[in-house]
Amino acid sequence: MALRSDWSQRTCSMARGLDILGDPWSVLVLREVFFGNGRFDAMKQRLGAADSVLTKRLAGLVAAGLLARRPYDDGGRTRQEYVLTAMGEDALPVLNAVVIWAEKHLPAPSGQAHMFVIHSGCGERTSSADTCTACGDPLTAANTSWHSLSRTADPVPLAWAGTGTPVQNGTAA
Questions:
Q1: What whole-number distance in Å separates Cα of residue 137 and Cα of residue 105?
Q2: Across the chain, which distance is largest between two alpha carbons, in Å?
Q3: What CA–CA distance (Å, rounded) separates 142 from 13?
Q4: What is the reported pLDDT for 162?
């Protein structure tokens, strides 16, 4: 899943990590799964990605072990949705770091174009990718919410390995 070449056998850990997480589409797919949008059509609509792009990234994330397929019944036939594995959940600090860095250093094109990392335990925004800066607790997918102002007025609890889709007010986030 490298951008230009296969870096999976490099001696540098960062290069090997970027072989999987260095593709923007792959990171955005992970964002959607963390938000609870593990179904192909929901991801396609949210991302605006072509079928071929999304299919390739999903296959790569499954092959790399970050996502797993889980069957669900859509009322007429069995389909597959994508859920985080423990390995995929461990990528959360990387995604949190990107959000926090972008909020700190990049101008937003509108007032709605902000996203914040919230520690659900204390309800505070954090400026650290792996530890709540308000209370010091470690951040995990189970105790972290993302607040994307363009998505919803309230923070969204993240999906985590084994749970699939977080439910908020009776509907998937």
A1: 25
A2: 48
A3: 27
A4: 66
